[in-house]
Write a structure and sequence with these properties.
Layout lengths: L4 H11 L3 E5 L3 H14 L3 E6 H7 L1 H14 L4 E8 L2 H8 L5 E4 L6 H16 L4 E6 L4 E3 L2 E3 L7 H11 L3 E4 L16 H10 L4 E3 L7 H9 L2 E6 L1 H17 L6 H24 L3
Parallel strand pairs: 1-2, 1-10, 2-3, 3-4, 4-5, 5-8, 8-9, 9-10
Antiparallel strand pairs: 6-7
Length: 279
């Protein structure tokens, strides 16, 4: 079911829950995410990164997205995640995506602003929403890896939000992309300060592996979109490995593919329930 990205985020903010944003790298992961949305009747953001889209083929990704939105009983929002190539972001805007993200967070502030404004102007003219990042969430994201990470400066966040007019703002507040090498320490005071300083919905990236109670506290402080990628990739891979352990001479892609779909669905449902049930 088609919905409106910003309206869904603002509704989540008003009612005190978060919308899960799930990455998919293949058809099985996409089907698992869509099945989770349908089973819970909860809005879900279906995300694809540049390298995943290139792996699957851009035209295949566009069609998977269109079919997901058209056939799902729950609201599905198609999202281009961590775009580094502005031309590919623009192509996503022209091919049915509800929202796109530019990641120029490693660049100087003024360049991040300039490039974000370029994407915002192009996307808004086509009815597409834009998310951008201020501060840098480190770790392995897409096919890039960064050891640099720095918490978002609240004053920079306010200024960036004012200058760019983005529809959602991703901040660096203690999470990391990929697998955590140490216990994550979310900066709750920072989250609360930024959420209370701007009207724009605030987003948490790199949330796989973060304890559920920590994510629930962040959501209670106003986080409305939580990105999950690695947890679903692990569920997908483990399901396929376990299927082959149990079917040593197996070869039917439909069968181990279904195992992957079911595992991704179950992992996604767990996150949905965590994000919508905030005490």
């Amino acid at each position: 079911m088609k919905s409106d990205f910003k309206k869904e985020l603002l509704k989540a903010k008003k009612e005190g829950y978060a919308i899960p944003a799930f990455n998919f790298d293949n058809l099985e992961m996409a089907k698992g995410i869509i099945a989770a949305a349908d089973e819970t009747n909860h809005p879900v953001i279906l995300m694809v990164t540049e390298s995943a889209a290139k792996y699957m083929g851009l035209d295949f990704v566009y069609e998977i997205g269109r079919i997901a939105v058209k056939t799902s009983k729950a609201p599905i929002l198609l999202f281009w995640d961590h775009g580094f190539d502005i031309e590919l972001i623009k192509r996503a805007c022209d091919n049915g995506f509800d929202a796109v993200m530019l990641d120029s967070s490693m660049k100087p502030f003024d360049i991040n602003v300039k490039e974000t404004i370029e994407v915002v102007e192009y996307a808004h003219a086509r009815g597409v929403y834009v998310e951008s990042e201020i501060g840098h969430v480190g770790g392995k994201e897409d096919d890039r890896e960064s050891k640099d990470k720095g918490f978002t400066n609240p004053q920079e966040a306010i200024e960036f939000n004012k200058l760019t007019k983005v529809d959602a703002l991703a901040i660096a507040a203690g999470t990391s992309h990929g697998l955590f090498k140490s216990k994550p320490e979310l900066q709750y005071d920072l989250i609360e300060e930024i959420v209370n300083s701007i009207d724009t919905p605030v987003v948490l990236h790199g949330s796989s592996g973060v304890p559920h109670e920590a994510l629930q506290k962040a959501i209670s402080l106003g986080i409305v979109k939580v990105n999950i990628g690695t947890d679903l990739k692990i569920a997908n891979a483990k399901a396929v490995c376990e299927w082959f352990d149990q079917n040593e001479n197996g070869y039917d892609a439909r069968k181990f593919g279904q195992a992957a779909i079911d595992a991704v669905k179950n992992a996604a449902i767990e996150k949905i329930n965590v994000f919508k049930n905030i005490n």
